[in-house]
């Protein structure tokens, strides 16, 4: 699984297993900004981070890395805690929309009685590329169409379905074709409890800011402390009634940089080792 990944030692203290994904917001050429080498062996105590894209079988990937003498920064249990909503949601129920995880999508009556319309639909790890027709479900008829489409969607069909309370987020100018409405949403990266980068989630539009971003970062820090995963992403957003909420968490190893300058993010990481 890792045979085609490049092993990079950055500044003699951080190991990166890197493989291009073709996603501009994720891929990064470390050699352009850091002193890098490509040793045959690396000390097992050297922190290691995977940058190989989506990590669908993390336990086996972790074992493959161990066979190379590496110990990825998040162990398999920490990866689950960071990336699967059924693991991180119980820790932050007071900071994120009401959520229920199902083994199969329930009937419309249950959704209507428990959540009402609209309701937010996603998989246990991610949405279907923020497709609004499979995310923001407007009414019963829309739900019935989305429930059928979910079973055949290449991204959603293998994930447990998740329904979340719909919260109206503060909008920002601009839109990304084929995506849900852009809003005051921010991505934050946390390395051993320290914020090493934050920036606009919607990097495809004109950069936006928020006057009370420090309040949002304070919430993200509290969440990062509760979940306590070494390398974590916490996505936050501001609602139209001026509250900060957590949108989701993830293993930072598989998260894109969004609107965060990647060279600064990775410099902040290496400076903390």
Q: Round the Cα radius of gyration to an integer and report it.
A: 19 Å
Low-confidence stretches: none
CATH architecture of the largest domain: 2-Layer Sandwich
**Biggest sheet architecture:** 4 strands, mixed
Strands of the widest sheet, in order across it, are 3-1-2-4
Structural class: alpha+beta
What best-fitting shape do the alpha-carbon axes yield? globular
Q: Quick one: how many beta strands?
A: 12
What is the succession of H and E elements? Answer: EEEEHHHEHEEHEEEHEEH
- Indicate the CATH class of the largest domain: Alpha Beta
Strand content: 15-25%
Notes on the protein architecture:
The chain is an alpha+beta fold and 273 residues long. Helices cover 24% and strands 22% of the residues. It has seven helices and twelve strands. It starts with 5 loop residues before the first strand and ends with a helix. The mean pLDDT is 95.
Helix-strand blueprint:
Elements: E1 6-10, E2 14-18, E3 36-37, E4 48-51, H1 58-67, H2 76-83, H3 85-88, E5 99-101, H4 108-114, E6 119-123, E7 136-137, H5 140-150, E8 161-165, E9 185-191, E10 194-200, H6 213-227, E11 231-238, E12 244-251, H7 262-271
Parallel strand pairs: 2-4
Antiparallel strand pairs: 1-2, 1-3, 5-8, 6-7, 6-8, 9-10, 9-11, 11-12
What's this model, at a glance?
Helices cover 24% and strands 22% of the residues. With 273 residues, it is an alpha+beta fold.
Summary tags:
273 residues; alpha+beta; D-amino Acid Aminotransferase, Chain A, domain 1; 3 domains; 4-stranded antiparallel beta sheet; 7 helices; globular
């Amino acid at each position: 699984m890792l045979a085609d990944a490049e092993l990079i030692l950055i500044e003699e203290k951080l190991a990166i297993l890197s493989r291009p994904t073709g996603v501009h917001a994720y891929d990064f050429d470390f050699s352009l900004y850091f002193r890098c080498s490509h040793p045959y062996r690396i000390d097992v105590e050297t922190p290691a981070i995977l940058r190989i894209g989506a990590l669908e079988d993390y336990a086996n990937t972790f074992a493959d890395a161990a066979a190379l003498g590496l110990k990825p920064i998040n162990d398999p249990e920490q990866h689950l805690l960071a990336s699967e909503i059924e693991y991180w949601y119980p820790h932050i129920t007071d900071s994120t929309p009401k959520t229920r995880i199902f083994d199969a999508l329930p009937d419309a009556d249950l959704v209507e009685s428990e959540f009402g319309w609209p309701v937010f639909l996603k998989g246990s790890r991610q949405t279907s590329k923020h497709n609004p027709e499979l995310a923001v479900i407007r009414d019963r008829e829309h739900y019935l169409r989305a429930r059928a489409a979910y079973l055949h969607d290449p991204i959603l069909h293998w994930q447990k379905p998740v329904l979340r309370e719909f919260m109206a987020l503060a909008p920002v100018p601009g839109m990304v074709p084929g995506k849900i409405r852009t809003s005051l949403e921010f991505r934050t990266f946390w390395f051993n409890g320290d914020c090493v980068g934050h920036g606009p989630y919607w990097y495809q539009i004109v950069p936006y800011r928020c006057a009370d971003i420090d309040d949002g970062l304070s919430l993200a820090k509290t969440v990062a402390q509760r979940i306590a995963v070494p390398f974590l992403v916490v996505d936050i957003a501001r609602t139209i009634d001026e509250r900060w909420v957590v949108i989701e968490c993830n293993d930072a190893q598989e998260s894109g940089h969004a609107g965060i300058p990647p060279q600064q993010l990775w410099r902040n990481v290496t400076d903390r080792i």
